[in-house]
Amino acid sequence: MASGVATVWLPVKDMKRALGFYGETLGLEVKRETDDWSELDANGLMVGLNARESSGADGGGGALLTFRPDGGLEDEVSRLKGEGVSFVGDISDHPWGRIASFKDSEGNDLQLYEPPSD
């Protein structure tokens, strides 16, 4: 039985660059930092950054994380664009909410999510 998410981890090619993105650009608290594994606190959810193996296939897969911005979706998209983040398309509207898709410094897929207004 799964009662919640304990850890989400992402493969990264460059740990320092990834820590800069998640720690500085997104503002998550770095809890542990090594060359092979680092941990960040995302409001009680531990996000692990795992260094990719230097040999073997370099597939394009990986986890997808969705973040809920503290303020409005447009404001956070604007802030992140100001930090050099590139978004994939425009904000999309759905019956279940709005999303804005972007990539992190390592090419992993991320999204910002805003629930529908009542």
UniProtKB/TrEMBL annotation:
Residues annotated as domain VOC: 4-115
InterPro entries: Anthracycline_SecMetBiosynth (IPR052164), Glyas_Bleomycin-R_OHBP_Dase (IPR029068), Glyas_Fos-R_dOase_dom (IPR004360), VOC_core (IPR037523)
Gene3D superfamilies: 2,3-Dihydroxybiphenyl 1,2-Dioxygenase, domain 1
A Pfam family the protein falls into: Glyoxalase
Name of the protein in its database record: VOC domain-containing protein
Source organism of the structure: Mycolicibacterium psychrotolerans
